[in-house]
Amino acid sequence: MKSNATPKQSFKLMKLHKFFIQEKCTFIYIGGHAHVSFDDVSFWNQENNKYKINEIPSNLGIEIETFHVHYENLLPQLISKILICDLKHLLISPPAKVSFDDFKFLTSSKSFSELSLYGKIVDKDGIVPYEILLENVPSLRHFSISRLSPLHLTNNFFEKFCASNLEMLSLWNLTEFFDVEPFLNSMKKKPNLHIYFYFEKSVDPGKVNAYIDKRVAAGIPDSRPPHFDYGFIDSERHSQLQNLRIAYDLKIQGDL
After folding, report:
1. Of 24, 69, 229, 252, which has the most beta carbons under 10 Å away?
2. Whether 170 and 245 share a structural domain
């Protein structure tokens, strides 16, 4: 092993080496999935183990598929015990308010690619805007957001999202105040983005149906048509959008 290797490089080299012995590793390796609850932390790989925060050692090396923050109160203490953080997916539930510094630590790995944000990221000035989060995580490919409001949709929002490396954007729990057509028009600079819309059950689909009919009548589009929840629009319009997406993909591949 290289003498000048960083702790993270050393950790990865030890895991790859055929003579690696966990007991002689200076880090406690944890993989699989993690759940941070109100009064305990669970790590799940082949079995689910719950720990009180004072039971967790202070030399963790974590390589986690999904790191789920249900509540934020134990998170600073847990982070102080993590020497190596390699996450792929961070999921933050609605009650949680995670500090911006903790967010930056958890999303610092080059492996990080998916953020499901149903809670909030905060700093001393309040809630951190989505576009700032996106700008801080260039590796992000899939961003899920809950209750996106028209107040969030500034010019800076669209500028940063269109310039990002995102491949998929999922918008959940949308209300009647969210207007699909102007949103998509403002995202045209990122035509290949897969966009998924999930509206609340109380929302009437009439406006969306009219938009879909307009897209279908216009023929092969210049940007990838969006996806809608099966419970929100009828099967015929689902099929029409799917056919438009197929036609769009053939077009950008030069096969149409």
Report:
1. 69
2. yes
